[in-house]
Each structure stands twice: as C-alpha cells, then as structure tokens.
C-alpha cells in the first residue's frame, strides 16, 4: 500500500502535534511535524505531502479568538498551500480541535453554503459580514475536558468511513458550533456535512441540543465535526489521537476484554487507506 506523507502543522502554542503524528504513523503513514514559519519561508514544501493535519492546542495563545491568528497567517501567506490540499481533489485535510477552529475561520468547512442565487447572475453570499457558521465559547463559559460519545451521520467524510460511534475525549473552551440560521444548518445537514455529533451512550440523539454534559458545549444540532462537500476536508473538536490505544480508555482496567486499539485509530487508518 502506498504510504501517504502527512504534514502536521505546528505553530507557537500547538501542543498535540507529537501524538497526532504518532497516530498517523501507527496507521501506516509517514508523518512530519513542520513549523508554520518553515512553510512561510518555502511554501513549495507542501508538494511533498498528501495529507495536511492541523493538530490541537492553543496556537498563538488563543489570542483574539481560538485559531484566528493562525488562520489569518495561513490566508495571507499560505494560500497556495491551502489550494494544494483543499482544491486539488487528491489530498486530505484534517483539523483536530484547535485545528478545526482554524479550518472554520478559514471557511473551508462551510464552503458553498449560505449562498443566494441571484437571477441570471453568480451566487452571492447571503450576508458577507457573517460567516455561515462559527465556533464560539462553550455555554458555561469555561474550558471543558471530558470523554464524550459521538455518532457518525450518513456522510461523505473520508475519515469516518465504516465508523458508527466513537468514545473520545474533548478538551476545549471555544467549541460550540453555531450556524448563522436554520437554512445553513439544513443545507449542511442534508449534504451529510454535519458528519459527527455528540450523542447518548446508546448512540441516540433525542433532541436538537442534548443537555450538558452529553453535548459539552451547547452547540447547534449537537455538532462535533463538519466536513466539506467532497468529504476530503474534515474538522472535529474531540481528540481521536488521544484514544488510539485501548489503555487510554478511562475504564480500561475494569473491562473484561481489551479491544486491540482505541476508538480513534480507525479515523487515521481510513485516511491512509484512501490512498490505497
Ligand atoms: N485542545 C485544543 O485544541 C484546545 C482548543 C482551544 N485552545 C480551545 O480551548 O478552545
């Protein structure tokens, strides 16, 4: 099987790059951690890689808003790099937690939604000043760190192929997904782009916003992860790289039988297998 090469992008304040690179390597990829400064010196480095991963952490100290500064730097200085990964059709992009925050600020997870079709003219954004969706502060206004149950919707998302449910840790302050309006939410939902949602341990989602702590942030439609229309670009707030080994499960010592791996590993394997 061809081994895809993964660019794990680091910035000041990133703190999940080592374990994210490890998860990709366990899944069979070759992963390298590359600082954003190195890419800004030489954006052509991107052509060596097939997967771009933005890992979790506190890039630039979460100043202004989580992910904002890194997204701005990428938009201003790394447009070609994003084009290489997002638009070429041959590559994958994964944003985990702070990485999803960056992808949301870049607009790549909600691209193509919230457009108005003007008679005879090109599509226009319904309201250019307000993005179709964003991530904001958790309902209780604090950083929250806990394990959550997640259900996968019918979705084109490459990373979630053959996964129905996962149990993963989440750890964020600004992870509440909100859509601009009901139409945007419905557009994303009907395209299978609200790929991953907080659910009850049974896998059920009985209300549009499940109570805390099942939905740990109060986000619309219990959304935990969103993909683009192609399913190749995916962002999620929980941390799959923190559950790749069975012993990372909080109750692993009380389980009679240990699964071979943690529940997050399949996501990385799906990415690697996509290149087979
Ligand atoms: N674990 C993370 O990536 C944290 C994301 C971000 N710093 C927040 O608190 O919202």
UniProtKB/TrEMBL annotation:
GO terms for biological process: 'de novo' IMP biosynthetic process. The keyword Nucleotide-binding applies. Keywords: ATP-binding, Cytoplasm, Glutamine amidotransferase, Hydrolase, Ligase, Nucleotide-binding, Purine biosynthesis. This is Phosphoribosylformylglycinamidine synthase, glutamine amidotransferase subunit. One of its GO terms (molecular function) is ATP binding. Pfam families: GATase_5 (PF13507). PROSITE patterns: GATASE_TYPE_1. It is an enzyme of class 6 (ligase). GO terms for cellular component: cytoplasm. InterPro entries: Class_I_gatase-like (IPR029062), PRibForGlyAmidine_synth_PurQ (IPR010075). It comes from Rhodopirellula islandica. Its EC number is 6.3.5.3.
């Amino acid at each position: 099987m061809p081994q895809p090469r993964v660019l794990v992008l680091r910035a000041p304040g990133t703190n999940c790059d080592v374990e994210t690179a490890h998860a990709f390597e366990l899944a069979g990829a070759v992963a390298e951690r590359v600082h954003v400064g190195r890419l800004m010196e030489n954006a052509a480095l991107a052509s060596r890689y097939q997967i771009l991963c933005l890992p979790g952490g506190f890039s630039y100290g979460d100043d202004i808003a989580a992910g904002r500064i890194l997204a701005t730097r990428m938009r201003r200085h790394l447009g070609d790099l994003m084009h290489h990964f997002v638009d070429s059709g041959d590559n994958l992009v994964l944003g985990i937690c702070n990485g999803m925050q960056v992808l949301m600020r870049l607009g790549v997870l909600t691209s193509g939604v919230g457009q108005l079709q003007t008679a005879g003219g090109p599509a226009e954004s319904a309201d250019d000043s307000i993005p179709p969706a964003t991530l904001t502060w958790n309902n209780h206004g604090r950083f929250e760190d806990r394990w959550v149950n997640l259900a996968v919707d019918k979705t084109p998302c490459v990373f979630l192929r053959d996964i129905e449910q996962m149990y993963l840790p989440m750890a964020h302050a600004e992870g509440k997904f909100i859509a601009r309006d009901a139409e945007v939410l419905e557009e994303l939902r009907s395209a299978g782009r609200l790929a991953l949602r907080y659910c009850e341990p049974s896998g059920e989602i009985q209300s549009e916003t499940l109570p805390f702590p099942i939905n740990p942030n109060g986000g619309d439609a219990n959304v935990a992860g969103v993909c683009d229309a192609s399913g190749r670009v995916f962002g999620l707030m929980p941390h799959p790289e923190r559950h790749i080994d069975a012993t990372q499960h909080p109750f692993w010592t009380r389980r009679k039988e240990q699964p071979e791996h943690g529940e997050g590993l399949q996501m990385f394997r799906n990415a690697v297998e996509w290149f087979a």
